[in-house]
Amino acid sequence: MTSTHIEADQVYVACRPRDLGRRIRIVSYTPGHDTAQIVDADTGARPRQISVWKLHDSATTRYGKPRTTGYVRETTAPEPAPAQPWLVLRDRHSRLWPWQWVCTATVGRPQQTPATCPDRGPARTEDHARQAAERHAKSAHRYTAPEA
Length: 148
Fold this sequence. Notes:
- By secondary structure, this protein is mainly beta.
- The chain folds into two domains: 11-73; 86-141.
- 11% of the residues lie in helices and 29% in strands.
- It contains one helix and eleven strands, in the order βββββββββββα.
- The protein has one helix at residues 126-141; strands spanning 11-14, 23-28, 35-40, 48-51, 55-56, 71-73, 86-90, 99-103, 106-107, 115-116, 120-123.
- The strands form three sheets. It has a six-stranded mixed beta sheet, with no helix packed on it.
- It is elongated, with a radius of gyration of 19 Å.
- The model has no long low-confidence stretch (mean pLDDT 83).
């Protein structure tokens, strides 16, 4: 989702891990236009234009995966963690295995760039997909369900 409230003096951080948190600042933006004028947030140097489609409100995609392109608005409050580290999705392309689970847990050591667990699996029912995802999260990520 592209940022819908772009204003001057907002600061954005690069989503690409290789950019090491490069920060940009919006200098000017005219609502309805496709580009915004930016500079480096720390130095004020390198004035240039950027497509507004590269400016995002959230550091995750709508599927819960971390963004790897574009810039995300810098915030002081952390994003809330998902209730469980998996998604259960309907697979429209398979009649034999119509459901699948996708692990969304963040993995990696503190010194490494965080990554999302690549595990996923098919299931015949939504309930089986949820159970398989929970078994994976418990065994691979030591996940325990929060108390209700």
